[in-house]
């Protein structure tokens, strides 16, 4: 004769008491610790990157995904946190990242060739623990490929970082983690800026009326957020000891500023971000 389900559930909960709280219920923690993403406008918009949660940053190519990712890595490594970066298609440029402020001595770079390697590497890193930030870059992998990742994979990743100080960041063209994500941020490119080349730049390019890419205007929108910063008091959020404006809207506009340098080597692209409104 089958046992009463409620009695069986009570028995299991009693056996797991002290080790796992409410094993049959997912605890959607709404008040979490957040840290700066490295861009004031993003911090003001989102409340910061949540620890112990999954954050998705999505958008098409040239929409600021890499700029935001590099800013987050720079912010965490500057605070002496050890970070891990899972490069889904081996497209990371460490020279540009270092120029943007990333401390490479604090960064573990995992170079992958396909999505299977990236997912396996991410699983090992999250289960190992000890990282301040783990970033999974799937931006160069077609969305139709990422769609085939089973939902239980994202659920396992979320559970691996839950109640830990680790920030799990996923960069992709479309959001796929669904309800497993604590924060979903959509990025979009607004306009590109061009500047007339100076005399030295024109000499290098061989064109007297050459124009160089000067930066882009980017916008960010919160598509989903279950984050309430633990440091949010009286309508003001605090990040690393400094106060920023309260989140008054669900969108933010910022820009990337590009600097070109020629040192007898291939051109190096340096990007900095600042808030516009």
List keywords for this structure.
single chain; 277 residues; alpha/beta; Rossmann fold; nine-stranded mixed beta sheet; two-stranded parallel ribbon; 8 helices; 15 strands; 27% helix
Structural commentary:
The strands form four sheets. A nine-stranded mixed beta sheet has the order 6-5-7-8-4-9-10-14-15, with helices on both faces. It is an alpha/beta fold. The chain is elongated. The protein has helices at 5-16, 40-46, 65-78, 94-99, 115-128, 143-146, 151-161, 199-205; strands spanning 31-32, 34-35, 49-50, 53-58, 83-87, 107-111, 133-137, 167-172, 183-196, 211-225, 228-229, 237-239, 242-244, 251-261, 268-275. It has a domain at 29-189 and 246-253: Rossmann fold. The chain has eight helices and 15 strands.
Quote the beta fraction.
25-35%
Largest sheet properties: 9 strands, mixed
Radius of gyration: 21 Å
What top-tier CATH class of one domain fits best?
Answer: Alpha Beta
CATH superfamily of one domain: P-loop containing nucleotide triphosphate hydrolases
- Ranges where pLDDT stays below 50 over 5 or more residues in a row are 25-29, 232-249, 262-277
The CATH topology of one domain is what? Rossmann fold
What is the N-to-C succession of helices and strands?
Answer: HEEHEEHEHEHEHHEEHEEEEEE
Question: How many runs of DSSP E, i.e. beta strands?
Answer: 15
Read across the widest sheet, the strand sequence of neighbours is 6-5-7-8-4-9-10-14-15
- Straight-line N-to-C gap: 67 Å
**Helix share, percent:** 25-40%
CATH architecture of one domain: 3-Layer(aba) Sandwich
> What general outline do the C-alpha atoms trace?
elongated
Average pLDDT metric: 78
User: How many helices in DSSP terms?
Assistant: 8
What class would the helix/strand composition place it in?
alpha/beta
């Amino acid at each position: 004769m089958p046992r009463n389900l409620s009695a069986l559930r009570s028995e299991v909960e009693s056996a797991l008491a002290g080790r796992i709280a409410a094993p049959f219920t997912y605890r959607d923690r709404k008040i979490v610790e957040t840290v700066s993403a490295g861009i004031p406008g993003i911090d003001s918009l989102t409340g910061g990157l949540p620890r112990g949660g999954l954050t998705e940053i999505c958008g098409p190519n040239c929409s600021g995904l890499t700029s935001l990712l590099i800013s987050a890595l720079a912010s965490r490594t500057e605070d002496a946190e050890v970070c891990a970066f899972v490069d889904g298609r081996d497209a990371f440029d460490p020279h540009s990242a270092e120029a943007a402020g990333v401390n490479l001595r604090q960064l573990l770079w995992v170079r992958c060739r396909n999505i299977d390697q990236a997912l396996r590497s991410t699983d090992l890193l999250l289960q190992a623990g000890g990282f301040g930030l783990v970033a999974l870059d799937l931006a160069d992998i077609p969305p139709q490929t990422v769609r085939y990742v089973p939902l239980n994979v994202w659920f396992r990743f979320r559970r691996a970082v839950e109640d830990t100080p680790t920030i799990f960041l996923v960069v992709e063209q479309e959001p796929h983690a669904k309800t497993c994500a604590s924060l979903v941020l959509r990025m979009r490119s607004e306009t590109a800026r061009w500047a007339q080349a100076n005399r030295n730049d024109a000499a290098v390019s061989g064109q007297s009326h050459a124009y160089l890419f000067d930066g882009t205007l980017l916008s960010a929108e919160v598509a989903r957020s279950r984050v309430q910063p633990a440091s949010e008091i009286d309508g003001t959020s605090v990040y690393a000891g400094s106060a920023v404006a309260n989140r008054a809207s669900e969108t933010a506009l910022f820009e990337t500023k590009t600097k070109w340098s020629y040192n007898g080597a291939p051109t190096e692209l340096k990007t900095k971000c600042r808030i516009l409104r």
